[in-house]
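Need residues for this backbone.
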C-alpha cells in the first residue's frame, strides 16, 4: 500500500502517480520508474542532452497526466536538477549520497554496486519512508542568484589566495623587496608595479619622481611612506644575480600578476551584481541588521536561509544542515561529541565566518566567545558555539521578518538573568575605555 500521509513540504502522497530514481552521470542517466497504479518497476536509460531530457519529460507528462511524479536523485544542483526544477508536475527529492550509500549497505553488505540497482533503491528509499524526507522547492530567482553569485565570488577569492601564495613564493626567490614595495599582492597596485618593474634591476632604473607618481595613483599614501619606499628601492641589494633564476622568476611573476588582475576585476563585478540583488531583496533589511555582516556576509546569510519560510520548521534544522550543530555518539556508557562533516561546506563557512566577524562588532558575542575559550574550547569550537547561538537569533528574525536589534536581545538576556549580560557589560566597558584612550592619544 502506498503512503497517503501529507509530506512535510505540503504534498499529499496520494497525488503521486509515479516514483522515479535517477542515478545521473555525465553521458547518460539510469532511470528506475515505479508506477503507483500498476505497482510495476521499469528500468531504462536517458542520454544526457537537452533534447533527450525534454523528450523524456514530455513522455512522463503524457503518461501521468494530472498526477505528480516524484524524482529522487543524488544531486542538490547541477545541469540535471536545473533541467527538472521548472517542470510543474515533478516533485524533486535530492538525497544525501552518504544516506544512499548507507541504505545500499543494508541490502548489499558485500559492497556490490550497480547504476540500475542504485536508481531503484533511491526511489524505494524515499517512497517507503516519505515521512522522513522533504520535497525540494527552489527559491525565487533572486534568492537563487544570490546563492550562486556569493558562492562563485568565494571561489574567485580562493583563486586569488592561491595565486598570491604563488606570487609570494616566486618573489622570495629573487626579488623579496617587492613584497614591501608592491603593496598588497591582491591589489591592482601590486599588479601594475610587478608588470612595470618585474626585477630589482629594472626598478633601480626608475627615477624617484616616477616612483612617487606611481604610488600617488593609488589612494592617498603619506609622503613619509612614499619616501621610505623610494629609499628602500634605491638601497636594495639583490638576493641573487643568477640570470636563470631572475629570468624565470620575472616571467612567472608577470604571468601570475596578469591572472590576478583578471580575478580582481571579476570579483569587483561579482560585488556589484551581489549588491544590486541584495538591495532589491525583500529580506535585505533583516540580514543587513546583524552586527558585522557587511556587504560580503549579509547576502551570504540571506542565501543560506533562503526566502521560503516553510522550508525550515525550527532553527535546529538549519544548525544541523549547515554543520554547525555537533554530532553526539553514544554507545553504552561511552559518549563523545564531534563536529559534523557531512554538510554544505560553503554554508558552514558562512556561519563560521560571520560568528568571527560578530565578535568585533557585538559586545555580547565577544563575551560569549571569550567565555567559551575560558572554558577550554579551541578557537574554531568557540566560533561554532557562537554560530549555533546566532542561528537561533537569525531564525527568529527571519521567521518574523523583523530586523535584529541588539538592545532587544540584551533586554531578553536581562529578563532571563543570563550571566552573559554581565560579561557583555565588562566587554563594553573595556571597549569604551580603549576608545577614550585612543582619543586622548590623538589629542596629545
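Answer:
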Amino acid at each position: 500500500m502506498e503512503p497517503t500521509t501529507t509530506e512535510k513540504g505540503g504534498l499529499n502522497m496520494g497525488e503521486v502517480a509515479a516514483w522515479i530514481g535517477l542515478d545521473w552521470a555525465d553521458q547518460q542517466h539510469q532511470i528506475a520508474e515505479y508506477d503507483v497504479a500498476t505497482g510495476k518497476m521499469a528500468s531504462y536509460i536517458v542520454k544526457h542532452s537537452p533534447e533527450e531530457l525534454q523528450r523524456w519529460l514530455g513522455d512522463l507528462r503524457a503518461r501521468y497526466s494530472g498526477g505528480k511524479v516524484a524524482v529522487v536523485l543524488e544531486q542538490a544542483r547541477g545541469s540535471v536538477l536545473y533541467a527538472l526544477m521548472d517542470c510543474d508536475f515533478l516533485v524533486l527529492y535530492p538525497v544525501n549520497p552518504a544516506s544512499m550509500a548507507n541504505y545500499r549497505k543494508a541490502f548489499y553488505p558485500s559492497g556490490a554496486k550497480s547504476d540500475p540497482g542504485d536508481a531503484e533503491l533511491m526511489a524505494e528509499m524515499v517512497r517507503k519512508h516519505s515521512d522522513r524526507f522533504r520535497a525540494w522547492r527552489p527559491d525565487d530567482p533572486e534568492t537563487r542568484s544570490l546563492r550562486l553569485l556569493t558562492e562563485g565570488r568565494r571561489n574567485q577569492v580562493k583563486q586569488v589566495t592561491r595565486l598570491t601564495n604563488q606570487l609570494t613564493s616566486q618573489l622570495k626567490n629573487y626579488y623579496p623587496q617587492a613584497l614591501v614595495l608592491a603593496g598588497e599582492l591582491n591589489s591592482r597596485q601590486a599588479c601594475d608595479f610587478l608588470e612595470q618593474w618585474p626585477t630589482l634591476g629594472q626598478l633601480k632604473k626608475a627615477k624617484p619622481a616616477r616612483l612617487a607618481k606611481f604610488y600617488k595613483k593609488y589612494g592617498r599614501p603619506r609622503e613619509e611612506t612614499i619616501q621610505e619606499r623610494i629609499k628602500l628601492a634605491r638601497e636594495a641589494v639583490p638576493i641573487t644575480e643568477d640570470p636563470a633564476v631572475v629570468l624565470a622568476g620575472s616571467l612567472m611573476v608577470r604571468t601570475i600578476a596578469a591572472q590576478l588582475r583578471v580575478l580582481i576585476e571579476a570579483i569587483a563585478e561579482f560585488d556589484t551584481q551581489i549588491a544590486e540583488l541584495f538591495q532589491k531583496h525583500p529580506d535585505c533589511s533583516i540580514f543587513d541588521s546583524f552586527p558585522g555582516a557587511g556587504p560580503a556576509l549579509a547576502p551570504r546569510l540571506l542565501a543560506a536561509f533562503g526566502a521560503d519560510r516553510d522550508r525550515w520548521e525550527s532553527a535546529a534544522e538549519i544548525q544541523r544542515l549547515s554543520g554547525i550543530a555537533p554530532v553526539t555518539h553514544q554507545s553504552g556508557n561511552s559518549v563523545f561529541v564531534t563536529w559534523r562533516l557531512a554538510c554544505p561546506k560553503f554554508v558552514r563557512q558562512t556561519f563560521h565566518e560571520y560568528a568571527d566577524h560578530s565578535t568585533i562588532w557585538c559586545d555580547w558575542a565577544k563575551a560569549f566567545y571569550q567565555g567559551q575559550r575560558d572554558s577550554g574550547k579551541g578557537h574554531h569550537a568557540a566560533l561554532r558555539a557562537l554560530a549555533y547561538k546566532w542561528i537561533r537569533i537569525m531564525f527568529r528574525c527571519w521567521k518574523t521578518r523583523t530586523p535584529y536589534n541588539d538592545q532587544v536581545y540584551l533586554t531578553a538576556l536581562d529578563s532571563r538573568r543570563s550571566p552573559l549580560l554581565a560579561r557583555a557589560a565588562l566587554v563594553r566597558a573595556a571597549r569604551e575605555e580603549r576608545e577614550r584612550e585612543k582619543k586622548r592619544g590623538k589629542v596629545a
